[in-house]
Amino acid sequence: MIKQERMAEQDIVRLLSEYAGGRNPKVKDQIVVHYKNLVESMARRYAGSTEPLEDLIQEGYIGLLNAIDLFDPGKGVRFSTYATHFIIGQIKHYLRDKGKIIKEPAWLQELNQKLMRAAEHLYQNLGRQPTLAEIAEEMNLTEEAVSELLATQEVFKVSSLDGNGSEDDEDFPMLVDTDKIKSQHHITFQLPIEDKIVLQGAMGKLKDLEQKVISEFFFKELNQTEIAKKLGISCNYVSHLLRTGTKKLKQILLTEELKETQKQIHLLQKRVETYQQVAQEMTISDPLTGLYNRRYFDDRIEEEVMRASRYQHELSVAFFQLEELADYEAQNGSRKADEILKLVGEAIKDQVRRVDIPCVFDRATFAVILPHTGSQSRIVRDRIYRYLVQKMPALAPDYPDGFSLKASFAVYPGDGERPQAIIETAMEKLACPGGPGTLWAAA
User: Which domains occur in the chain, in start order?
Assistant: First the structure.
C-alpha cells in the first residue's frame, strides 16, 4: 500500500483541481490514500449490520472514487463533506442490496416520522437546527425523552435504511428506547408514549365503543367526564373501557411482538445452519501468502462485474505468473517454494491500492481485481510488475537459473462482459509473452 503523510487542506484542493483538469490516475491514488481513514470511519458506523467490515470498507472506497470523479472544485464545497455523502450512500445501497434481518416495527416507523416532521418544521421556522428543548416542546415530550431518541441511533441504523425517511437526515435519528419514553400528559395513567402511537394500528381489533373511548382519551385528549358526556355513558363505564381496552391492546401488541421475534429467531437459526454447513468453504484468506484465496476471487469477481454493470463502471483484472516455480520446487522442496510465494504475496500487497483485491489464482499465479478501473489498470499492473521484477533476484539467490515473470490484464466490458470471459482473455494474453497487454521479463 502506498504510504503518504497527511496533507494540508490547500494541498488536497490542489490535487482535486489537478485531477479534475487531467484525470491523472496517480493523482487520484494520492487522494484515495489521504481519505482512507474517512472511509474506514464511515464503514465502522455500520459494523453491526452483519456484513463483513472489509466489504463495507470496500463499498466506502467505491463511494470515495465516485466523489472524486464528480467533485467540482469550483463550487467552493469542502471535499470531505462532499465525499462523506457518497461514501455513506454507497454503503447504504450495498446494505439494501444485501437485505436486512431486523424489521423495524410499524409503530417505530411512525414515531420516526413524527420526530422528523417536528425537526423539519422547527428548522424551517427557526432557520437553524432546533435544540432538544425545542423539539421536546414541539412533540409534547420531555427533553429526556428526545435525548433518548437521539442517543439510541445505532440500534436500528441498518433497519432504518429502508424506512420512509430521507437517507441524508443524519442529524435527527429515528430511533427510540421504548421503555424510557413517557408522555408529559396523563402522567397519573402511566402510559408510555409508544402505546399512544401503536394504538392506531391495533384499534381495529377492539369493540367499537372501546375504540371510541380510547381515541377520545389518547388522541383528542379529552378527560373522562368529557368523554362520558360526549358518548352518553357514565364516567365509571368510561374508566372501565379505558382499563379493559388498553389491557387488550397491550396483549395484542405483545402477541404480535412475540410472533415477530419468533420469526426473526427462525430466520437467524436458518442462517446459522447455512453457515455451519459451509464453514470450511467460507475461509477467504490464503494461509501462505495472506492474500485472498481462489474461492474468494471467484465470488468477488462475480460481484464486481455485477456492480460494474449496474453503475456503468469499468473493471479490470491483472494477472502475474511466476515461471519455473515447478522446477524450483522439484529441486529444492515445497518449503523453499512456499517461501518464494510468500515473498511474492507480500510484494503484491505492498503495491496494490486499498481498493484493490489481491488474490492467489493458482499455485504460481496471482490475480488482482481492480474495481472502478479501466485502461488505467495498465498503470497499476506496470507498477506491481516492475516491483516484482526488482525483487526477483533476491527471491532465490541459490537458484542459478532464476525466475521469469509474466503479467497481463483484461478489462470489463471491452475484453468480456462475463467473469469467465474476462479471466480467459487475461490468461490468453498471459500465455503469449510480448503480446498485447502482456509484460514478460526474465530474472
Answer: 9-98 (1.20.120.1810), 187-275 (1.10.10.10), 294-442 (3.30.70.270)
